[in-house]
Batch of 2 targets.
Target 1
Amino acid sequence: MKLRKTSMIRSLIVAASVSLMAATGAVRAADSTAPIVIPIHNWSSQIVMAYVLGGMFEGMGNNVEYVPADSQAVYESIRNGDVTISHEVWQSTFGKSFYNAMEKGGVIDVGTHSATTLEEMGVPTWVIDEGLCPGLPNWEALKDCHENFTTPDSGGKGRWLEGPQSWHGDLMPERLTALGLDDKWTVKFAGGADALWTELAAAKKEKRGTIVFNWTPNFTDAEGFTFIEFPPYEEGCRIADGGDGTCGSPKGWLKKAANYKFPKTHPKAYTTFSKVDFSTTQIGEMAALVDIEKMDHKDAAAKWLADNEDVWMPWTK
Ligand code: TMO
C-alpha cells in the first residue's frame, strides 16, 4: 500500500516536471536567426503587407528577407522551404495552387483574415450610372452593349482588360467562350496592376466604357466599383477543374500559409503570424497608400505600422 502510494506520487512528480519542462521549453525557445523569407508579388496591398509583416518580425528580433516571386509558383517554393510564408492567399486566384502544394506536403494553413474577397471583372460604378451597359451588373447585359467598350486594339469587339496573365491564365477568355460572348467581346491582358488603374483613370476622363479585372479589398472599394454578376461559382465549375467554365469567381477567403517547419524554426514569429488578421478596410488602406497617395511600398508600410500600433502590437506579444 505504502509502496504503491510512493510510486504514484513519484509518477505524478515526473508527469508534472515533464509538463513544466514542456511549458518552459515553449516559452524559452528562441527564433532561429535564419531569415524569414517573405514573397513580393505584383499588387499593392500584398507588397505593403509584406513590409508590414517584415517590420513586425524585425521588431521582434527576427531576420527577414524579401524575394520577388511568381504568385502561383510561390506555393511550391513555400513547400520546399525557399519561401517561408504567404500572407495573401486569395481563394479565387491561388486556392488551387495552395491546396495542390498542401496535398504534396510541406505547406500549412495559418488561418484566415477577416476580410472576405472577390476577384472579378467589373466596371467603375459611374459606367452603370451613365447607362453604358443597361442591365449591369447582371452579366447578360453584356449581350447588348459591347459597342460602348471597344478599343483601338479590340477589332470591333468590346474589350475586357484582364490582369497579368500570370494570375489566371486563360480563365477569362474561356469564360467569354463558355458564355457565348466571344463573338462580341475579347480579352486583353494588362502588363501589370498599374495598367488597370491607368485605364480606370483614362476611361473616366474620356467618359468611355471600360471593363477591367479588379478585386476587393482594394483601394477602389472607396471610389465605387461594381463587379459583374456571373452564374454563381461552384466547386469544379471552371474549365481547368473539369467544369463548363460559365461561372464567375467565388466570394472567397483570404488565407495565410507557411512552410511546415516555420512553427519549429521561428515559434515566436509563427505565433505572431497566426494571429495576424486584416480587415477589408485595413487592406484597402494599405493599397490606397500606394495607389492613391503614391507612396513607395516600404514608406507605406512604415506609415501603416506607425499609425496602427494598437492593431499589430498585441499580435507580437
Ligand atoms: C490576386 N489578386 C488580388 C490580384 O486578385
Target 2
Amino acid sequence: MKYFIVTYGCQMNVHESEKIAGILEGMGYECGQSREDADIIVFNTCAIREGAEDRVFGNVGNLKKQKKQNPNLIIVVCGCMTQKEQTASYLLKTFPFVDIVIGTFNLPNLAYYINAVKSGRQKDIWQEGDIDETQPYSRSSGDNAWVNIMQGCNNFCTYCIVPYVRGREKSRKEESILNEIKALIAEGNYKKFTLLGQNVNSYGNDLSDGVNFAKLLRDICRLDGDFTVSFMTSHPKDLSDELIDTIATEPKVEKYIHLPAQSGDNRILKLMNRKYTHEKYEEIIDKIRAKIPNCRITSDFIVGFPTETEEEFMRTMELVEKVRYDSIFAFMYSPREGTVASQMEGQIDEKVKHERVNKLLALSKKIQKEDNKS
Ligand code: SAH
Ligand code: SF4
Ligand code: F3S
C-alpha cells in the first residue's frame, strides 16, 4: 500500500506533511513515487492566497478519473484551506469522490478517519484533537530537520487568514523541543535545525515558566553536537534586543533573519494592523546590521492592499531601496473571506497590483545584482 502527499504553502505545512507521512507509515503505508501508483493521496492545502486554493481545486478535480478506475483509492484533502468550514463543504459538494476532508484542528485524528473510510463507516468531520507528540515524523528534507516550536498566531494582521485556520498561539514546552532536537542529533543525520512558528519571537508568551525565544535558542546551542540553528518567521514588533544579541553571539545560530515588512507606508501598516512604523522597522534593521555584520536579511511584501495609493506604494519601494534585502517575496494582495481587509472599501484593481508587484520585484532584482557584483 502506497501513499503520495501533495503539499502547498509554507514550511509549517511542509513539516506537517512529514507528520502525515509518519501517521501513514505507522498504519503500514509506504511512500509512493507518483499519484498514479498511490492507494492514498493526501492534499495538504494552503489558504493564504486565492491562487493557492485554485491550484488545489484544479488538482483534486483531476483525480476524478483515477478514482473511477480505482474505487479503493482514498483521497484526503486537509490543511489550512479545509479548516474553513465553507471551503470544506464546497469541496465535498463539488468533488463527491473525495473521501476525507479535514482541517488543521483535526489532523491528529487522520488515522481514525482513514480507518473509518476503509471500514465503510460514516465520516464525521470537525473534531478537534491535540497533536500527539509521540507520533514520529517521517522526515524528508535532507540534512535539515524542521522543528515546530509553536502553533497558531495571535496577531490578526487584517489581510491574513492564518489565525482563523491555525488557531491561537500555543507554544510547545521547551523540554519537549530540546528532547526532540537531542534525539535528532543522536540520529546523526542532521546538520541544521530550522525552528518553525508563524511568529517565533512570541514563543513562550503563553507558557508560565519564563522561557522566551532567545533563551530557547541559547539552550539549543548548548546541546552537544555539530549543527546550526535557523528559524522562521520573525514579526518585527516582537524582535527583541536580547534576540539580536543571541543571534550575534551564538556561533551555532545562522546569521539570517526573515523579517517581513509587508509595506513601507505607515498608514497602510496601520490598516494592516502590523503594530510598527517604517521608522521602527528601519531602526531594527540598523540594529541588526550593527550587531551582526553580514547578516542576511529577507522580507515579504504585499502590494495593492485596499486603498494603497501610488505614493504609498512608492514608500515600499523606498524601504526596499534603503534596506537592500538579500531577497524578497512580493505578493499581490488577495482578499480572504472572513478577514477584516476583505471587507474594506477601496479594493485595488488587479492590473495595478500586477504593475506594482513587477516594479517591486524588478527593483529587488536590480539591487541583488549590484550587491552580488560588489
Ligand atoms: N507569519 C508570517 C507570514 C505568514 S504568511 C509573518 O507574519 O510574517 C506569508 C506571507 O504571505 C506574509 O508575510 C504575507 O506577505 C503574505 N500574505 C499573507 N496574507 C496575504 C494575503 N491575503 N494576500 C497576499 N499576501 C498575503
Ligand atoms: Fe498572518 Fe500576521 Fe500572523 Fe503572520 S503575524 S501569520 S501575517 S496574522
Ligand atoms: Fe498557507 Fe496555512 Fe502556511 S494558510 S502559508 S499553509 S499556515
